[in-house]
Amino acid sequence: MKIFCTPKTLATRDTLTKARKLAKKLARDTLASTQRLESDAKEEDEEERRKKEDPKGKRKKRSSKK
Length: 66
Hints:
Structural class: mainly alpha
Radius of gyration: 27 Å
Helix content: over 70%
Distance between the termini: 79 Å
Number of helices: 1
Number of strands: 0
Largest sheet: none
Strand content: under 5%
Region (Disordered): 26-66
Order of helices and strands: H
Protein backbone atom coordinates (compact mmCIF):
# COMPACT_ATOMS: atom_id res chain seq x y z
CA MET A 1 0.00 0.00 0.00
CA LYS A 2 1.44 3.33 -1.02
CA ILE A 3 0.93 6.50 0.96
CA PHE A 4 0.79 9.61 -1.19
CA CYS A 5 2.04 12.83 0.30
CA THR A 6 0.94 16.05 -1.30
CA PRO A 7 2.93 19.20 -0.73
CA LYS A 8 0.15 20.41 1.56
CA THR A 9 0.33 17.35 3.83
CA LEU A 10 4.13 17.53 3.88
CA ALA A 11 4.00 21.19 4.94
CA THR A 12 1.43 20.39 7.63
CA ARG A 13 3.49 17.51 8.96
CA ASP A 14 6.64 19.67 8.96
CA THR A 15 4.81 22.45 10.82
CA LEU A 16 3.48 20.00 13.40
CA THR A 17 6.96 18.54 13.91
CA LYS A 18 8.40 22.01 14.46
CA ALA A 19 5.57 22.88 16.85
CA ARG A 20 6.16 19.70 18.88
CA LYS A 21 9.88 20.38 19.13
CA LEU A 22 9.23 23.96 20.19
CA ALA A 23 6.68 22.85 22.80
CA LYS A 24 9.14 20.31 24.26
CA LYS A 25 11.89 22.94 24.45
CA LEU A 26 9.54 25.43 26.09
CA ALA A 27 8.43 22.83 28.64
CA ARG A 28 12.06 21.98 29.49
CA ASP A 29 12.99 25.65 29.87
CA THR A 30 9.94 26.33 32.04
CA LEU A 31 10.68 23.36 34.27
CA ALA A 32 14.34 24.37 34.63
CA SER A 33 13.50 27.97 35.52
CA THR A 34 10.84 26.83 38.00
CA GLN A 35 13.31 24.51 39.73
CA ARG A 36 15.90 27.29 39.80
CA LEU A 37 13.42 29.70 41.39
CA GLU A 38 12.40 27.10 43.97
CA SER A 39 16.00 26.42 44.95
CA ASP A 40 16.73 30.16 45.20
CA ALA A 41 13.67 30.65 47.42
CA LYS A 42 14.72 27.70 49.58
CA GLU A 43 18.20 29.21 50.05
CA GLU A 44 16.74 32.59 50.99
CA ASP A 45 14.40 30.97 53.52
CA GLU A 46 17.32 29.09 55.01
CA GLU A 47 19.37 32.30 55.33
CA GLU A 48 16.46 34.08 57.03
CA ARG A 49 16.02 31.18 59.42
CA ARG A 50 19.70 31.30 60.32
CA LYS A 51 19.51 35.03 60.99
CA LYS A 52 16.50 34.54 63.27
CA GLU A 53 18.25 31.80 65.22
CA ASP A 54 21.46 33.75 65.63
CA PRO A 55 20.85 37.52 65.17
CA LYS A 56 24.45 38.57 65.86
CA GLY A 57 25.78 36.29 63.17
CA LYS A 58 27.78 34.14 65.54
CA ARG A 59 27.24 30.50 64.85
CA LYS A 60 27.58 27.93 67.54
CA LYS A 61 30.20 25.31 66.90
CA ARG A 62 29.14 21.74 67.22
CA SER A 63 31.24 19.57 69.41
CA SER A 64 32.15 16.27 67.87
CA LYS A 65 32.07 13.18 70.02
CA LYS A 66 34.98 10.81 69.64
